């Protein structure tokens, strides 16, 4: 299939309400790495009072507790059902920090208030007095079959997330705290959903993960095998390996 015949719709969920940590850079990375290959990328922005645009990739970033509560309180059952159906249809989702928590069953904040999640992912989160901050390196779950299995990011969260039986970790912590600081897991995967605590922003730091997301979205949309044209990632890989070396992790 000719790349010029390919296109992807990408929806940025709640860009004004939940985009605290500069995670909009993930949208830019997806868009540019599509365009450099001749794949058209159409970006749609959907906030609290907007209908969710049906897309091939959904990105949802992080926010403070109050922002999560606002979004949770304004989520109609229709929107929850829509997102759940998209997940089950193997649409690709990238969820960072607060959105990771909200897609789960519930979140207990620092005041003991229970914020109901969407219940789409089998995870729950509770606030901790200890803030987990710093660089993170993980080894990704073998099921993802990433060429480069290491992922770099930056975490800044007090929520401790615990996984249920219906999901698996995105990866396993080499450096950092991860989901909760105890079990050495980071993030979660379910079908084509990747949810994690990794800021950075994540995708510009990890071009191999960006390409994985693009590839999965294309394969799901066109129901066929797709080969991505290789890009010159020499600068990205140099930055990636430099950070690994600083953290004393072998590339």
Could you describe the 3D structure shown?
- It is a single chain.
- This protein is α/β, with parallel strands linked by helices.
- It has a single domain, classed as Rossmann fold.
- Helix content is 28%, strand content 30%.
- The protein is built from seven helices and twelve strands.
- The strands form two sheets. The chain has a six-stranded mixed sheet with strand order 2-1-3-4-12-11. Strands 5, 6, 7, 8, 9 and 10 form a six-stranded mixed sheet that branches.
- α1 packs across α6.
- The longest helix is centred in the last third of the chain and has 16 residues.
- The radius of gyration is 17 Å and the shape is globular.
- The model has no long low-confidence stretch (mean pLDDT 93).
- Its EC number is 6.3.5.13, 3.5.1.2.
- Keywords: Cell shape, Cell wall biogenesis/degradation, Cobalamin biosynthesis, Glutamine amidotransferase, Hydrolase, Ligase, Peptidoglycan synthesis.
- Belongs to the CobB/CobQ family. GatD subfamily.
- This is Lipid II isoglutaminyl synthase (glutamine-hydrolyzing) subunit GatD.
CATH architecture: 3-Layer(aba) Sandwich
**Strand order across the biggest sheet?**
2-1-3-4-12-11
**Helix content, binned percent:** 25-40%
Mean of residue pLDDT? 93
What is the chain-wise order of helices and strands? Answer: EHEEHHEHEEEEEEEEHHH
**Alpha-carbon Rg, integer:** 17 Å
**Could you tell me the strand content as a percent range?**
25-35%
Which homologous superfamily in CATH is the superfamily?
Class I glutamine amidotransferase (GATase) domain
Shape: globular
How is the biggest beta sheet arranged? Answer: 6 strands, mixed
Output the number of helix runs: 7
* Secondary-structure content class: alpha/beta
CATH topology: Rossmann fold
In total, how many beta strands? 12
CATH class type: Alpha Beta
The N- to C-terminal Cα distance equals 33 Å
